[in-house]
Structures are given as structure tokens and as C-alpha cells.
Amino acid sequence: MNRLPRHRGETDAGEHALEARIVAGVDVAERQGTEISEETSRAIAQVLSMTSQKFAALEYFAKSGLGSYEAVSDEFLSLYRDASTPVQIKLWIDRLGTFLLGRHNLLPDDYRRAPIDTLHHLLVPHESPRQFIHFYARADLTSPEIQAAADHVEALVDRLGTAFAAFLTLADVDGGADNLAQTFDEFYIDEFTDRHAAMSALTEIDEVIESVERLAQEHGLESVFTYDEDKLNEIFTAGYDLVELRGRMYVFIK
């Protein structure tokens, strides 16, 4: 295995034993389809803290299992985004990152572990400090980059309004992307008073129901005519994302 340059800590034998523990722990997690254990995450942090750089937060987490996600992630992301870092180490960082995101309740609500999850492709929730705007951004962004993204989305909400704030709450919208305003323009349809008003405006459902009701009346079947509103909503939302915010319903193309 290619290793990171180290400056202190384990002997070669100790480092091999540590790596073996990590490999075994990751293998168990992959077979079970779960996150790695705390023991494995701390072993990964220990390996990372043994590099030629001084990583105080990683070292503290390795010893205690404690520490803020921001402090620990800012340190391991400097390795994660370094082209010279071995691929195996980056895969371990992916595992450490999703473990910590889960511990701090920062994973999306519908998150389900895939066979290979990378922090670069995972969007996690954030909130801008000034306007309390909810948005998602890549999990491999550092704290300063997240703050820059927050400043950017706040400026765009000031310019584009509540509809854009609603757009940012969609879990597949990267709030750190450069082309946010353009993407919003491409996918935003309109705002409505509620879900029914949106469905009426964007489909022919009212006309269809009216036609079927008229047909039922002509054949004396008014008492048996019903329609499944939940099913209609399911069909409608298969093509559209609906976000209710501040008393209005905002609709976007999926």
C-alpha cells in the first residue's frame, strides 16, 4: 500500500497492524452495507494524523473519539484534495467523512449508503448564518468554502427572491456551484397558492375529472365514481419538484 509521508508515531509493524484493523473494519462495513464503526474511524484518523503535517483535530479524534466535524474535516480534506495522496487513503477518508457526517446528523434525510460513496459527489445540508437559508453543498468543501457558498446563495436570494430560496432546499441542488442562477432559470416553473393550484395549472386533470364526472352522471354512476387523489399527486410529482415555503408552493422540473 502506498503510504503518506509520516513524521512520528508508529513503527512499521505498528502501522501495518493499524492498517490491517482499518481494512478489516471497512470490509465488515461494506459487507453489512453500513458506516464504519467508531473504532475504525479513529484508526483512520490515527493514520492520517501520523503524516508530515500537524493535524491536531485528527489526532485528538483518534485518541478520544471527540471533535467537531468542521475541525476534523478541514484537516482530512487537505489530504483528500491533494493529488499526491494515495487512492486507498482517499477511500478511507470517504469512509471517515460519512461516518462523521452521520454522527453529527449532517447527512441528507434520504441518505442511503451506496457501495462507493465519495465526499466529492455527496451533497450535505447547510444553513446560511445571516438569512437562515437552507442549502446543500458538496461534502468535500472546507469551512471557508462553505462560508463563501453561503454568502453567494444569500446574495442570489436577495436578487431572485423566495423562489430561489425554495430551489436551494432541493437535495440535488449544489449550493456551491457556480451556475446556480442559470440552473434555477432552467428548472423553475412558477409559484402557486397550493399543490392543487399547481396541478390544475400544469396538467389537464380538472378537465379530465370533469369529463369523467359528466360521463358518470349520464349513466347514473355518480355514487360510484371516485378518484385516488394520492395517486394523482404521485403521478404529478414524478415530473415535478414541489417546495412549500412561506405560504406559497414553488414548482420545478425534476
Report on this structure.
The protein has 2 domains: 102 residues, no CATH class; 133 residues, no CATH class. The chain is 53% helix and 11% strand. The strands form 2 sheets. It has a 3-stranded antiparallel β-sheet with strand order 3-5-4. Strands 1-2 form a two-stranded antiparallel sheet. Helix 1 runs antiparallel to helix 2, helix 2 crosses helix 5 and helix 3 packs across helix 4. The model has no long low-confidence stretch (mean pLDDT 88).
Strand order of the largest sheet: 3-5-4
Overall residue-averaged pLDDT value: 88
Radius of gyration: 25 Å
Count of individual beta strands: 5
Uncertain ranges? none
Q: What percent of residues are in strands?
A: 5-15%
Largest sheet: 3 strands, antiparallel
Residues in helices, as a percent range: 40-55%
**Shape call:** elongated
Structural class: mainly alpha
N to C succession of SSEs: HHHHHEEHHHEHHHEE
Q: State the distance separating the first and last CA atoms.
A: 43 Å
Number of domains: 2
Number of distinct helices: 11
Gist?
It is built from 11 helices and 5 strands. The strands form 2 sheets. A 3-stranded antiparallel β-sheet has the order 3-5-4. It has a two-stranded antiparallel sheet with strand order 1-2.
